[in-house]
Amino acid sequence: TPPELIRNFCIIAHIDHGKSTLADRMLQLTGVVDSRAMRAQYLDRMDIERERGITIKSQAVRMPWESAGQTYALNMIDTPGHVDFTYEVSRSLAACEGAVLLVDAAQGIEAQTLANLYLAMENDLTIIPVLNKIDLPAAQPEKYAEELAKLIGGDPADCLRVSGKTGEGVEPLLDQIVAQIPHPVGDPDAPARAMIFDSVYDTYRGVVTYVRVVDGNLNPRERIVMMSTKATHELLEIGVISPEPVPSKGLGVGEVGYLITGVKDVRQSRVGDTVTNASKPAARDLGGYRDPKPMVFSGLYPIDGSDYPDLREALDKLKLNDAALVYEPETSAALGFGFRCGFLGLLHLEIVRERLEREFNLDLISTQPNVVYDVTLDDGREIHVTNPSEFPEGKIASVSEPIVRATILAPSEFVGAIMELCQQKRGQLRGMDYLSEDRVEMRYTLPLAEIVFDFFDQLKSRTRGYASLDYEPDGDQVADLVKVQILLQGESVDAFSAIVHKDKAYSYGVMMATKLKELIPRQQFEVPIQAAIGSRVIARENIRAIRKDVLAKCYGGDISRKRKLLEKQKEGKKRMKMVGRVEVPQEAFIAALSSD
Ligand code: GTP
């Protein structure tokens, strides 16, 4: 297809504003999927995505569309919908010339709408504002058209109105995509340069890589080079998705499609990388490549220690499809053998954990997630701490922690409550704008560690669910951080220690000590629970001793009954972990580590 007849676009929207439903309608109207084959949310393939209604992996579909007597090829590139995947979103956007900015006409602009809009603007995309769900009785298209026009400029009347559900307004939208979004421009005679915006592992075909060709051509059977690694591969297959993969004779300037080289690991085909011809390599890549950087770490342990080899195997498998997942073996005195895993963020953690439990049938304990700290010691050495147990004792010159730029959107009546929360969470207000008289956008910098803790739940509860949040990493910042250790009878329990701000050390210590006092059963002797910073104890609770003699109940009688009781007690002990002399039930660990 000549570039003049190609339009590359994506739909950007806040979660639940109807992106997938609209995409489904477009597939139907362009005849790519017929109504009978249509299942809701055709593009969201993973079960877990479907159940949670979130899109994790982007895909690209080519749709033919006739407008003003010409047949155009519309490439719709689906973007992942969550903060953890900002980099993937930015690469998907970089593969487009335009974006449909979709806003629920009953909700208005939300934090993700804005975050994605900013990303689209950074990529110089043409923005088409669209209000969705106009079939809803609660829709207020006039009001929100004003909001949108104020945000991106232009006339409220130019804001399109559609219903992804009924299909109303979707054909005019497709025409506007053709009319407003510029066609791709590139040099057809130059060495090929194609940007990878997604790569997905497929059990049967190996890694399927999604690319947008910027210059030149990619052809089947030729050798290609991944420019960041210099690795060469043979192009076994190249084609477009419409809606199933269709092999083609090659991809030229402006085209979007997939390629298969037989590699088995998405790490060999990285999002953001540039693909070029091995015979005629491009001198420069397209820029913008970034290694995925894990931001949040957590220990994953099998509840049943004998599942450890299965957990390792499951992680090895997941890794094939997830370039951002990192892990290494770890041993914990309390939890046994497990893995220290790094994730892009909390959702990523949750997704991986859930897949391990669901697809691989594992029961897991995950330790309280923590961010990565850079510790500078008195002698100038630097340590990269991904686990509280690695945090040095004393001799620390400074500690820095990752911070994020957060955008919070909420009805203006909640400004006070949000400010109070952000203050508690060590946030700094960077700016505030009224989108309309009753809706406000607040921009904060916040430590990622505070967000990882329970920020989102608190924000929701303080704003009765009305606030929305989006954030992206914004470097590191020095902070006054300490490690709080929890000791049972003088023994430190690694799984419970945490790195927290100095001002919060006390409340963390008290919270953990109180929790554990409730969770750990009384023993034959008194058990002190202490929270300490170094050798300084900051909180203390006691579990009082009991004397429990199971045999006493039996009045000497029947010996087999006594044996049975002893057996039973042994059974119970198996599920106990020993910390020094203290028996801690497995459930206590799980309960103490769960954040609620
Ligand atoms: P993510 O892909 O998870 O970001 O969500 P989404 O933006 O794709 O939302 P999705 O298409 O899953 O729609 C969210 C909810 O809104 C679903 O329950 C849809 O049925 C509903 N919905 C979507 N479009 C419309 C519409 O035009 N009218 C009405 N009434 N409901 C809609």
From TrEMBL:
Annotated keywords: Cell membrane, Elongation factor, GTP-binding, Hydrolase, Membrane, Nucleotide-binding, Protein biosynthesis
Highest taxon above the source species: Bacteria
Substrates-to-products reaction catalysed: GTP + H2O = GDP + phosphate + H(+)
Gene3D superfamilies to which the protein is assigned, alphabetical: 3.30.70.240, Elongation factor 4, C-terminal domain, Elongation Factor G (Translational Gtpase), domain 3, P-loop containing nucleotide triphosphate hydrolases, Translation factors
Entry keyword annotation includes tRNA-binding: no
EC number: 3.6.5.n1
Gene Ontology MF terms in the entry: hydrolase activity; translation elongation factor activity
Compartments, as annotated in UniProt: Cell membrane
Top class in the EC scheme: hydrolase
Family according to the record: Belongs to the TRAFAC class translation factor GTPase superfamily. Classic translation factor GTPase family. LepA subfamily.
Protein name as annotated: Elongation factor 4
